[in-house]
From TrEMBL:
The name this protein goes by in its record: Uncharacterized protein
């Protein structure tokens, strides 16, 4: 609240007028404070982090922008795909709730954004499980994660997809598992670092200069259900994350 001190004489009418004016100004200032507080809450990641932490230690920040000062710290040599995906999921949810933020998108773009959000929501349990697996990294957690992942994979309906993270030789990759038929899946292997994964993907030196074309995604089509749900394959894949 604000106060104004004036010295002099005034009529009762003038006093009432000044008092009403001061009250309006005070209400305006209080409303601005409330708006600022709501904006701060909108920027908060409290929905993701149970306990507040310094922004420079937030895994979401490190996973999104990286940091040149994580060497020789516990933050080095781990995966932040889970945190990055959680932040993107939260941001996309809030964006789609506000028409102003998607006003410039046409119908096809809005549908694509909704589809991405649906896949994120379907896949959050997988990312949280991978985060826990990387934190503790023992065989019991691996088997528990594999059991839950297999159920999530089995519950994917025809036409739906599940996104899962993985670590291969310390490199982060994503696998998009799409159920195209009742007994068939497509698996898209996505390299998150196009330069770090060139030896795993096709490279064409005959591409037009000045660049050499390479593919950072590889699609494995029409995988039988029996192979897509094979425990041995998924166990070997996720085991590389904790080795």
């Amino acid at each position: 609240r604000t106060f104004r001190i004036e010295e002099g004489f005034a009529l009762k009418k003038e006093i009432l007028f000044n008092r009403a004016r001061d009250k309006v100004i005070s209400m305006f200032n209080e409303e601005r404070i409330r708006e600022a507080e709501l904006q701060r809450q909108g920027l908060s990641l409290a929905e993701i982090f149970a306990k507040p932490r310094p922004i420079w230690l937030a895994p979401a920040l490190i996973g999104t922008f990286c940091d040149s000062f994580v060497e020789n710290t516990p933050l080095e040599g781990t995966s932040y795909l889970a945190w990055s995906t959680m932040v993107l999921n939260l941001a996309l949810q809030r964006a789609l709730k506000h028409p102003v933020l998607v006003k410039g998108l046409d119908h096809a773009a809005r549908s694509a954004a909704s589809d991405v959000l649906f896949v994120f929501n379907q896949s959050m349990d997988t990312f949280r499980g991978m985060q826990k697996l990387l934190k503790y990294g023992n065989k019991s957690n691996l088997l528990s994660f594999l059991k839950k992942f297999r159920k999530l994979l089995h519950d994917v309906k025809t036409g739906e997809s599940l996104l899962t993270p993985a670590l291969v030789e310390g490199k982060e990759i994503l696998l998009l598992v799409e159920r195209i038929k009742e007994r068939a899946y497509n698996v898209t292997v996505i390299q998150t670092d196009p330069f770090g994964g060139l030896r795993y993907h096709a490279v064409s030196p005959s591409a037009r200069p000045p660049e050499i074309a390479y593919r950072t995604c590889m699609v494995l089509s029409n995988i039988p259900k029996k192979n897509a749900l094979d425990d041995v394959f998924w166990l070997a894949l996720f085991n590389m994350a904790i080795q």
